[in-house]
Design brief:
Number of strands of chain A: 11
Structural class of chain A: mainly beta
Structural class of chain B: mainly beta
Helix content of chain A: under 10%
Shape of chain B: globular
Mean pLDDT of chain A: 97
Oligomer: heterodimer
Distance between the termini of chain A: 36 Å
Radius of gyration of chain B: 13 Å
Radius of gyration of chain A: 13 Å
Largest interface: A-B, 24 and 23 residues
Strand content of chain B: over 45%
Mean pLDDT of chain B: 96
Number of strands of chain B: 11
Low-confidence stretches of chain B: none
Shape of chain A: globular
Distance between the termini of chain B: 40 Å
Low-confidence stretches of chain A: none
Amino acid sequence: EIVMTQSPATLSVSPGERATLSCRASQSVRTNLAWYQQKSGQAPRLLIYGASTRATGIPARFSGSGSGTEFTLTISSLQSEDFAVYYCQQYNNWPPYTFGQGTKLEIK
Amino acid sequence: QVQLVESGGGVVQPGRSLRLSCAASGFTFSGYGMHWVRQAPGKGLEWVAVISYDGSDKYYADSVKGRFTISRDNSQNTLYLQMNSLRDEDTAVYYCAKGAYQLPPWWFDSWGQGTLVTVSS
């Protein structure tokens, strides 16, 4: 089973600043990695797939990068609606599909 | 647009059974793999099971293998999760999620709002 590890667990950033979230896989997942956003009390929403392709309707301030075992989600200028929990997920080696434990992005 | 609506959650005693449903609309249901993903209270996301577009292939997380069964009725655009021998640790919000394509590999491009299952005596 591939273990996904996200860091940091909590990230405090001011609105308008850049946020950088990390995700590491225990073995290579190539670019078969997705990012999801989950706001409190809501279902997750797909942000990025293929490590760097934005899903339909996702603003350009969200970008993904990386391949192999190291991945990054960058939010270039944080808006109030971006404060949420973010999960990475690998779909290269399955079953099982595995998620990271999440990074909570909070207002500084 | 894609809509996934789960139902069937509730409070159930340990060892009992429950069946969840997910009604799909807004896309050609029979053309996509479908998943169940769960989230225990205050915890992260855990993939539970997947079924292929035609129901011929099914895979499960080790934590539910032998107890849960995923199925689908393409004529009714509905996904199911039969949960038997429920345990306290199965308490979670259960989401159905649509696979991105007919064939794997899959990410989850649409999610339902979830249904809460509470296992408690």
